[in-house]
Amino acid sequence: MSDAQFIIQDITSTEDIQMMQKAKMVGEILNEHYPSHLWLVCWQGGALVVKNLALGSHYGFIMRDDPDYGVLAHNAMIAGGELLERARMKRGKWDGEMPTHLDGADPRIWKPIH
What's the pTM? Predict the structure, then answer.
């Protein structure tokens, strides 16, 4: 039996298809610049939601939609790098070490994952 997890998204409009394509592109850009990190990219309400699952599910960033894929890719690279810096994680390939700190996080909500 496979460990793969499948999530089925109800695609109801051409806007959903465009957002799915943009979410895929943002995930690819993040993985290209910051490989092996646990990036999660989805969309909701016309915005892209990006998280690094090594930080848990409460922290990440939201990107407004932009019709220019180049601008969207650049903004994703900058915001992804900033999130890694806040967690004091390397901007390169992830070494598998879990973060022990997250600048700006509420200590009542964010706890290191051990």
Answer: 0.83
